Amino acid sequence: MNFDRLQTFRLVAQFGSFSRAAEALFLTQPAVSLQVRQLEKELGVVLLQRGASRATPTNSGEAVLRFAEQVLESRANLLRELAALQSGSSLVTIGCSASSTHQVIPQLMAELLRIAPDIQLRVTTLPPDEASARLLKGDLDFTLTTDAYLSDRLEAEPFAIARLFVVASPTHPLARKGRATPEELAAYPFALLPSPWTAQRRFREWAANQGVELNVTMELSTYDGLKQAAKKGLALALIAESAIMRDLERKDLVIVNTVGLPLEFVIYLAHRAGPLLPAMSVVKKAALDSRVGRVADRQGQHAPARREHPIASS
Q1: CATH code (residue 232)
Q2: Helix or strand or coil: residue 46?
Q3: Where are the beta strands (DSSP E) in the chain?
């Protein structure tokens, strides 16, 4: 039985939508439909009731869905164990943003080196929606992501606080003001990360709440690109605190303060629901021991520490 067809069917059933499954798998909708039809032909049953607005598993589909979840999880565990045997260590994979690799991964690696030097950590930088899709597929063990990209098939813990600042060249007109109004910010061009990175969506929400419209003249896929655009005076930029600390110390960039900034939101450590392999349990404990306390302190009652909870997709 083809694993890809099982995974495709599972995502269609989860989302209730061929198009949303196609987006998560980075395939076309016809390709997703073909894989489901091929699986139905192979099994000799109808797996999905195709409605006008939602695809719903049939009774046979529910049985195959339970089978698919067990098989795909077992396959993912087997591949991880084989990789660990081949490398001579326990391999754990994490998908996260570039800012997280600067902000939190070094501390996690240091803690793992102290308590479990035999565990190998592999970090992949990628957008949050792609990271969640690969986590669901079994290609990743963990992701560091926001609640906007989690599904009810994942478990998550508050892990860190992301803080995003508007920065500019020291020669920018707003750099000398100390504090600017939202209207003044909106009058200048901005460089932002492209969708589906969380920063742009949250910044546009901030602008809408302030009654202004952002003038986004360029989208750059890395913080290094955003910093260069700001340093050269081409645009203001919204960048994570961890990525600009040295630039601020060297006075290559300055923060432009305004109402409602910096933007703050929780980053979650997410994994597939269910029991964890021993190496994954060690990584999770090391991560939460080093970060969750500070998250709880910053949030008060909004994010109770050390409590697992599924986050619904949105």
Answers
A1: 3.40.190.10
A2: coil
A3: 48-50, 55-57, 90-96, 119-125, 142-145, 154-168, 189-192, 215-219, 236-240, 254-255, 263-272
**Domain closes at, from 20, 36, 70:** 70
Q: How confident is the model at residue 298 (pLDDT cuts 50, 70, 90)?
A: very low
Arithmetic mean of pLDDT, 215-229: 91
32 belongs to a structural domain = yes
- The angle formed by the CA atoms of residues 298, 304 and 305, to the nearest 5 degrees, is 85
Residue 81 and residue 135 in one domain: yes
Residue 84 and residue 64 share a domain = no
The pTM (predicted TM-score) of the whole model is 0.60
Say which CATH number the domain at 65 has: 1.10.10.10
For residue 7, give its domain range.
3-70
d(CA 299, CA 12): 36
Torsion of CA 207, 244, 265, 123, to 10 degrees: 130
Amino acid 310: pLDDT: 31
Residue 40 reports pLDDT greater than 50 = yes
Q: What is the pLDDT of residues 161-189, one digit of tens each?
A: 888 999 999 999 999 887 999 999 999 99
Model confidence pLDDT, tens digit, residues 73-112: 778 777 766 766 665 558 899 998 877 777 778 888 888 8
Q: Are 12 and 32 in contact (CB under 8 A)?
A: yes
Q: What is the DSSP letter of 154?
A: E
Look at the chain and report how many structural domains it folds into. 3
Residues 46 and 77 in one domain: no
Q: Are strands 154-168 and 236-240 parallel, antiparallel or unpaired?
A: antiparallel
Name the helix (H) or strand (E) containing 282. Answer: helix 278-299
295 with 148, same domain: the answer is yes
Which of 239, 264, 289 represents a domain boundary (last residue)? 264
The reply to whether 28 and 46 lie within a common domain is: yes
Q: Which residues contact 162 (CB under 8 A, 6 or more apart)?
A: 99, 103, 146, 198, 240, 241, 263, 264, 265, 266, 267
Q: How many CA atoms lie within 13 A of 15 on its CB side?
A: 20
